[in-house]
Amino acid sequence: MNFLLHNPTRLHFGKGKLENLKNEIKNGTKVLLTYGSGNIKKFGLYDEVLKILKELNCEVHELSGIEPNPKLSSVRKGVEICKNNNIDLILAVGGGSVIDASKAISIGAKSNCDVWDLIIKKETPSDRVPLGAVLTLSATGTEMNPNSVITNEETKQKVGFAHPPYTFPVFSILDPTNTFTVPRNQTVNGIVDTISHLLEQYFNKSENGELVDRFCESSISYMMEIAPKLLENLEDYSLREAMMYTSFVALNGSLSVCGGDWSTHGIEHSVSGIFDISHGEGLAIITPHWMKYVARKNPSKVIKLGERVFKLKKEGISDIDFCDKVADSFKNFFKQIGVSTSLKECGINEESLEDLVENTFVLGDVIGEYVQLRRDDVREILKMSM
Ligand code: NZQ
Ligand code: ZN
User: Fold this and answer.
1) Backbone angles phi, psi at 164, to 5 degrees
2) Using a 6 Å cutoff on CB, does residue 139 contact ligand 1?
3) pLDDT in tens, 245-288
4) Most exposed residue of 92, 164, 210, 216, measured as fewest CB within 10 angstroms of its CB?
5) Does residue 165 have a cis peptide bond before it, meaning omega lies within 30 degrees of 0?
6) Assigned architecture for domain 10-179
7) What is the best residue among 136, 201, 247, 272 to mutate for testing ligand 1's pocket, by most ligand atoms within 8 Å of CB?
8) CB 212: neighbour CB atoms within 10 A?
């Protein structure tokens, strides 16, 4: 349990907090405003942000069209705009993809090397253009962490990286009302992603992590409890607020103090790198199969999870059968909230198996912590997920 925890992001949480941009941004700042396909224009946030930036006499440049599963080409465009215009601040308005791309832009803009070399950690940044975020989708926790995930569309490699402290947003504004328009399917993806982050950290190998385990168990239970209610009431403030809070707490570092496994994410990034499916969808498919597979090597935490979260009774059942029941309970929950539960449902079949295996090991030959996985293990999990 030895760790260093340093989270420098100032988080403004609650209704109307967009006004706090006025405290965070100095008069006359040269801003690069980044966003996605334009949903922020449909629900009025773009105009609100622009109005504030104008009041602050900011010089505003824009990078729009950042894709879900953000692509290296968008990052490169952003780096160029920053370098050509001496940008002082990047303001990302969107979900995880927009914020992640903006993190990569922020370090790329202050480096002389190719930004991809920073992403794959061949090079190290020594500065960044500060980044502020206005979050519109609760899921990734990127609003309060140093992580970013970028896809190189030429090689199909989807790489997660972090360069703390440079890739932490300086500030993030989280107003639950800005997530009211997130459609049902993206809300589902966010629920799955949040649960997955809690699971990945639950599957640490620490022997003294009981409190972290309990935080994770109760947060998973809570997400599963509110999910059906939220999906019936997408504009319910309290439920959007609860989800927004859970999703940043789930990945802002405080639950990572005992480590974590992250294999499911590694395998999912391979799938969405090649097939561009939603991150949450990929996680929902892979998680139950990963769980069944690792339980055959180390069932202890899967058993604990089943007893604590699903209140399943272990007596009279073998470890393997019990763990299968736990994994099936997750699968049923994912099915119930309407997410795909097999790769074939997403049009992915055995023909792509070897590419998916290889693409999982972009940065090394082993993934995982609770159970370490190599190519043969990942091949089996992917086969089970077909
Ligand atoms: O294109 P725009 O207009 O932005 O629309 C987006 C996009 O189509 C839309 N959306 C966002 N907010 C909305 C909205 N639509 C209506 N109303 C709103 N308020 O939703 C779609 C998906 O957005 P995206 O940003 O891609 O979703 P998410 O936040 O789930 O981010 C996913 C990306 O984050 C990565 C994933 O791999 C994926 O690339 N992750 C990042 C992590 C991190 N940085 O810590 C950790 C995660 O594990 C994850 O890997
Ligand atoms: Zn995730």
Assistant:
1) -65, 145
2) yes
3) 999 999 999 999 999 999 999 999 999 999 999 999 999 999 99
4) 210
5) yes
6) 3-Layer(aba) Sandwich (3.40)
7) 136
8) 21
Distance CA 307, CA 195 (A): 17
Q: Extract the tokens encoding 382.
A: 């992917």
Reported as a single tens digit per residue, the pLDDT across 192-206 is: 999 999 999 999 999
- Which one, of 55, 4, 65, 68, lies nearest residue 25 by Cα? 55
Q: Is the CB of 145 under 6 A from ligand 1?
A: yes
- pTM over cut 0.90: yes
Q: What's the CA gap between 118 and 122, in Å, rounded?
A: 6
Tokens of 46: 């773009």
Handedness of CA 19, 23, 27, 33 (dihedral sign): negative
Q: From the options 1.10.10.10, 3.40.50.2300, 1.20.1090.10, 2.102.10.10, give the CATH code of 184-385.
A: 1.20.1090.10
Q: What's the average model confidence in pLDDT over 290-300? A: 98
Tell how far the Cα of 95 is from the centroid of ligand 1, in angstroms: 4
Rounded Cα distance between 125 and 79, Å, is 14
Q: How far apart are CA 234 and CA 230, in angstroms?
A: 6
Q: Which of 339, 343, 341, 346 is nearest to 188 (CA)?
A: 339
Look at residue 215 and tell me whether its pLDDT is greater than 80: yes
> Do the beta carbons of residue 136 and residue 179 sit within 8 Å?
yes
- Note whether 72 and 150 are within 8 A (CB): yes
Domain spans of the chain, in order of start: 10-179, 184-385
pLDDT digits (tens, 9 = 90+) for 3-23: 899 999 999 999 999 999 999
CA–CA separation, 98 and 92 (whole Å)? 6
Based on DSSP, count helices (H) and strands (E) in the chain, helices before strands.
15, 8
Distance (Å, rounded) from C-alpha 67 to C-alpha 150? 10
State residue 2's pLDDT score: 85
Q: Residue for token digits 């180390």?
A: 298
